[in-house]
Design brief:
The protein has 166 residues and is mostly beta strands. It is built from one helix and twelve strands. The chain has one helix at residues 5-11, and strands at residues 31-33, 37-44, 52-58, 64-71, 75-79, 84-85, 90-97, 103-113, 120-129, 141-142, 156-159, 162-165. The strands form three sheets. A five-stranded mixed β-sheet has the order 2-9-8-4-6, with no helix packed on it. A four-stranded antiparallel β-sheet has the order 1-3-7-5, with no helix packed on it.
Length: 166
Amino acid sequence: MKGYLPLVLCGFGLISGCGGGAMRPSGAPQVSLSASSLGFGTESVAGTSAPLSVTVTNSGSAALDITNVVADPNFAQTNTCAATLAQGANCTISVTITPALAGSLAGTLSISDNASGSPQEVSLTGLGSTSGGRCSAKGQECGASQLPPCCAGLTCVPASTRAFCE
């Protein structure tokens, strides 16, 4: 029986140094983001845009520990993410732009966590304007009287109960 013990233990991966090293955890978290970039279109300097959202999903096989969510200057975020996101669970991060100056703005939304590739990043872009011209970017809601029109090159397309710039 002694001769079989190492083979059985190595077969189950219980002994380090047996064809692959130390024991591995049974699973790992994996982050899936609903978008890799958010484009805000044009917003008046010191004005705040309507929020755009990113859904964070833990598509892995272990809990996802979210340690920090931060947006670069000119952008702000709020979120529904708990410190721990269970396997298969998701949360939403809403981002707005508040340009401090006129011109093109770019930034990053960073999500620090215990998944591979951390921090997870979403590119953020927008345009600050002093002319007061405000428009809705691709994917933003349009059509209602209180909403700005679609940005140049986009049209307002109906979709079930609302319409979006495409």
